[in-house]
Task: inverse folding
């Protein structure tokens, strides 16, 4: 049983070992610049902006941990402690390496996409607060604006038959950071084999049969995946710098 007299500590794990091929050739997606600063730095700052987060673990490309550490050392993240560890060949393996690097005493774990550099601190705090209130897994999410069709897949470019239209009111677009009770997330990674249908860490927890709850996400927590996303992120960042003094 947790010791009620001990403060609850929160850490964030940021897997940043992917190449990000949809943004085109060049540096890994997490190291692409946004407003002159690598997206990874923005993502770490977004986690460090929460007073509840005492540690951020960045999971770097397998052969790039020293370079990522040097890059992050060029920036300030306030009082938040920072660790950099080499990642694995898959996202699940990389997240697990980040979990293995956590010290004793961490109770709540956030897993955050490096490609979501502009998530507001209020969203981060809402996820943490909901885990601390007893939820084993929490995801921020938004209602869908578009109607969604289920289709029978065909080779790219071919017309695909529609097989159903899910009720939009029952669907949510999931964001990060996703928050977890540490032991629940570790059990999920130990139990669920990669490729068994889970595409995020909350999905791993779902496979355990543990409850996952949703809290409101934010429009600015979108994922920078394609060149148009980067254009939108630059516009959001420019507005923040002009109105909020964001650096």
Result:
């Amino acid at each position: 049983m947790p010791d009620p007299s001990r403060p609850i500590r929160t850490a964030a794990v940021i897997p940043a070992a992917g190449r990000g091929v949809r943004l085109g050739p060049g540096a890994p997606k997490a190291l692409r610049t946004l407003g002159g600063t690598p997206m990874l730095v923005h993502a770490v700052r977004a986690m460090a902006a929460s007073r509840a987060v005492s540690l951020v673990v960045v999971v770097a490309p397998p052969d790039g941990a020293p370079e990522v550490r040097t890059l992050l050392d060029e920036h300030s993240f306030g009082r938040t402690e920072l660790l950099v560890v080499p990642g694995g060949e898959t996202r699940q393996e990389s997240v697990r390496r980040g979990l293995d690097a956590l010290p004793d005493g961490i109770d709540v774990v956030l897993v955050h996409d490096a490609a979501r550099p502009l998530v507001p601190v209020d969203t981060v705090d809402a996820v943490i607060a909901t885990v601390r209130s007893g939820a084993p897994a929490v995801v921020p999410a938004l209602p869908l604006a578009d109607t969604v069709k289920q289709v029978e897949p065909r080779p790219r470019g071919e017309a695909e038959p529609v097989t159903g239209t899910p009720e939009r009111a029952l669907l949510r677009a999931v964001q990060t950071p996703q928050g977890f009770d540490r032991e629940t997330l570790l059990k999920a990674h130990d139990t669920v084999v990669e490729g068994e249908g889970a595409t995020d860490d909350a999905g791993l927890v779902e496979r355990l049969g543990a409850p996952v709850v949703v809290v409101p996400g934010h429009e600015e927590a979108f994922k920078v995946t394609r060149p148009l996303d980067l254009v939108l992120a630059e516009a959001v960042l420019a507005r923040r710098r002009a109105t909020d003094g964001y650096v």
Q: What stands out?
A: The helical segments are 39-48, 65-73, 91-100, 121-132, 182-191, 201-208, 227-243.
